[in-house]
Amino acid sequence: MRLRTHLVRMTDQDVWRCAREEIPEHRAVLVELSAEGESGWGEASAFMTATYNSETDTVLDRLRAVAPQLAEADPTRPEDTWRRLGPLLADCPFALAALDVAGHDLAARLAGVPLFAHLGLPDPGGRPSSYSIGLDTVDVMVDKLNRTPGWGLYKVKLAKADDLDVLRALRAHTEAPFWVDGNACWQPRDLFEVLDQLPELGVIALEQPFAVTEVDGQRAARERCPVPIFADESVTTPDQVRPAARVFDGINVKVLKAGGLTPALAMLRECRELGVASMLGCLPESSAGASAAAHLAGLADHVDLDTVALLAIDTGPGVRLDETGHIRLAAGTGTGFRPDWSSPAHLTTERSVR
User: Fold this and answer.
1) Fewer CB near the terminus (10 Å): N or C of the chain?
2) Which domains does the chain have, with CATH numbers?
3) Count of other CB atoms within 10 angstroms of residue 108
4) What is the pLDDT of residue 351?
5) Cβ distance 318 to 287 under 8 Å?
């Protein structure tokens, strides 16, 4: 396989904020693997760069280093390529993920089938996604909700667990349930004081309320919380699923954090085996990454792939969510993603690595 890389930059319709950070733009490396006249596409976002070693320059360097192995890899066996590259890119999971996604996309295109069919998964078309309402003033958060009426689930970012005025203001404009995300920034005492009020506000789940190290607080919260608590930052790879199942009710699986479609698929399957609820989530990504993740949606209990609905500038057409948040796969083989080279998201000409 031949590797090419492209630098891209996306922006959202609104500046993305959560309790942890503010993201005015999304930079990423678009990865292209080619063989036999076809190309597969993956994406490595420059997200939480200190945690995931995902600066674009770092990702490019690491991709160049494994190009010789890619040149000799069988394009029809992406799982084998992932197993060979995994030890080499263990400290750079987004680079590994982008290569694995591109490899699976390429294999499906060479086979002439959609990615979900190539993986032996159910057709995810029509599955509903949540819509994320990023942290802002209450008026702005209400406006975001009102711009997207009719969705079946809203994921609400809260700076503190006891910021229930935000939920009350949103509740006045929708009957849809809320999934509330703390992004690992809440304090246990704040959550414990408001637990009993969550059901009456239509909250059906909490996501990663506390820091990864706050295991005792999470264990206590699970015992007292009237709604399920899902892990996000606490679980990134398959080996963390089973331990997390002892302190969380569910797990948010993200392809980039996991290191690719291969491990993300294993995580979703293990959740089913353990009887642990699952959400298929996303990071700030373009249609290149989201289109691949969408093909796993038939295996997840809940879906949060709204990154494509939040974007103002995208890298090209791919998966879309309709006016009520249901998945509409792009036509064609593989993920269905196609780069739009006229988009302002594309910053550089391709870099080819032989």
Assistant:
1) C
2) 2-113 (3.30.390.10), 119-328 (3.20.20.120)
3) 27
4) 55
5) yes
Look up residue 33 and give its two tokens.
């693997």
The DSSP bridge partners found for residue 320 are 328
Number of residues assigned to the chain: 354
Residues 213-219, mean pLDDT to the nearest whole number: 96
Phi, psi torsion values for 279, nearest 5 degrees: -125, 140
The residues, ordered by sequence, that sit 6+ positions from 311 with a Cβ below 8 Å of its Cβ are: 10, 11, 12, 13, 286, 287
pLDDT in tens, 42-63: 999 999 999 999 999 999 999 9
Residue that the structure tokens 């594309």 belong to: 346
Report the distance separating Cα 46 and Cα 65, nearest Å.
19
What's the predicted TM-score (pTM) here? 0.95
Q: How far apart are CA 107 and CA 102, in angstroms?
A: 9
Reported as a single tens digit per residue, the pLDDT across 250-278 is: 999 999 999 999 999 999 999 999 999 99
CA atoms within 13 A on the CB side of 201: 24
Phi-psi region of 302 (alpha: psi -120 to 50; beta: other; left: phi over 0): beta
4 DSSP β-pair partners = 32, 352
Q: CA Rg, the chain, in Å?
A: 20
Phi-psi region of 126 (alpha: psi -120 to 50; beta: other; left: phi over 0): left
Residue 152, helix vs strand vs coil: coil
From the list 275, 157, 258, the residue with the least C-alpha distance to 209 is 157
Contact 288, 318 (CB under 8 A): yes
